[in-house]
Amino acid sequence: MNRWIEKQRHLIDFTANSLARRKARSLGLLVVYTLLVFVLASVSLYTHALRNEATRVLAGTPEIVLQRLIAGRHDLIPPGYMDSVGRLRGVQKIEGRLWGYYYDSVMKANYTFMVPTDRTVADGEIIVGPALERSRGLAAGNGISFRSYSGELHTFIITEVLPHESELVSADLVLMSEADFRRFFTYPEGQYTDIALWVANPREVRNVGLKLMEKLPDSRPILREEVLRTYASIFDWREGMMLALLSAAILAFGIFAWEKAAGLSAEEKREIGILKAIGWETGDVIAMKFWEGLLISLLAFLLGYVAAYIHVFHGNFALLQPVLKGWAVLYPSFSLTPKIDGLQVATLFLFTVLPYTAATLVPIWSAATTDPDTVMRG
Amino acid sequence: MIFQPAIIALLLAAGLSLVMLAAASPFALQVLRHWDLGSGSERQLRLERMTYLFSMLVALVCGLQLLATLLFVFNADKMSVMFVGAMCAVGALNANEYGFPALYAQLVLFFVATSWLAVNRLDNSARDYPLIRVKYVLLLTYVPLAALVLWLQFNYFIRLEADVITSCCGSMFSEEADTVASEVSAMAPRDAMILFYAVMSAAILLAAWHWKSATRGIWSGLAVGASAIGAFFAGLMGVVAFVSLYIYEHPNHHCPFCILKPEYDYQGYALYVPLFTAAAAGLAAGVLTLFARRPSLAALAPRASARLAGIAALGFALFLAVASFMVLNSNLILLD
Known about the structure:
heterodimer, A: alpha+beta, 13 helices, 56% helix, 16% strand, elongated, B: 70% helix
């Protein structure tokens, strides 16, 4: 065993030296390889971070949101509807929510107006999200007017800007009092936009949902786990699409690696010829080439992955952002929590190292089986 | 759901393996038909030269299968969030009827791959390619198995539908199908423990004896191989029947996959890595003793077999120690 290790150690040593001697050639391959890992790793790190962010954000939301439908369209919750839900076993809290969208023609953007249930806002005052603060240059204490859908102008005083940490969910948010909300939208008294239900036991959520559907056939309960699942599969799908598109790049890289490995220079051929002449076996040459591939692969993988990590978590994923993030006028600016996932690293490894290894197999073999005699004579 | 990175990677691995093996099979047939070490003909020289390429190729495929097996289980666990009622890999694998067959086929492929690698190593260490025919017969049987794995995995993944919200007409309440159960039935803990410790100790003793004994007969080698298979199943049975209960500290949760999750500190890897290594080594030890009668392998085969048996003995012992530690360290009291 020790002899085997010793032998491999010498082979690695020899390979590293020979790579260093052919700097330009090795560097070209390394750069292309690193670039490929970088792009693929950026995509996977970013989608994984987005998925985590979605999970984190949704963790605080109610387990079930109940909407009422008329002819398949979302409708308001009429007075007395909530009472008919009544007491359901397992439901901790049930609340009517008031929210809606407002189109601001100045910014050409949609805001979300909402009445908070966990805090009170005085009449005539509002609390705004960070994106609104940025785009309209607002600060606490300023006044702002919105023209309501009935044509009247309503003026509000901003008392507070929501913290930046929650920007992913609060970027375009405007919080106001219930009276203001109803006045602004001429919202019918006693009606709500939808109903939120909190369920303590996760195993009960589906049962509560089924009971709601039974009691209120015109309603549609949306479960938090369904929302989570939908987000997860959207992000996975986007990542998968990106990878499928990038498969052309992987293929091109495979061809490039093949070419690189197949086009042995006369000097390299001579080197292999001499090695074999002084007693190396075909197996030894293959082992040397194997170490060469492994060293380049590991180095490229490491460099590419680290560069991708910096790109995603410190460079805001600047190069590929529009493809994966989606689009909005008031897009929240947020920083992602760095996270590395074993499954993703393994997947990435398969996507990059495997094509390289497969592509260099035949060239390695043909180099290793060259006759010393033909090489040195030619 | 085919457009998921890990799924694409798995299908890529399975597809590439099949392509490479299929490319190697005409050569395998040639070797079986025309190989003659005594001859100095051009064809024989060409075959000898080509055999390096195909050994390398199959070694790559085998290595790939080891990685793919890990990725398959890992991925099944990650996908479980996509299905209503699925809590871990069992639920995801139960999402359609191809899931578990795909896993089993992948595991069989894993053990065939490790055995092939062992045979290849032994063959390379001898001067006169004594096992070349065996290797290529094995390769030819490997091809349909690789095709089966690809077919099962493709069918499994293409039929997966994530339970997501449909666009407009009401949220989807896909009924929790009976099949997507996250529980695995198991035997009574006391019987399982007796069987588990008996079979594991027998396997360890046999492997250790084969490792250290001077004779290293064919029969003891075969016994190590057979006991490795037995110990592998006994180990899995033990994990399902009682080790998992002690890890979860819950008298009814038998899942062999949840122990791989971060919630349980990835303890499953500490169990499965030694178990799989030991089983693969023990199986290979058994396979290699079959060749001890060949003249050029008379010394080499028993030595390689003994070394593998040593790995198997250590692996099973480690597995047993880790499992026992988990049981003793747990707060659950299952037996009075």
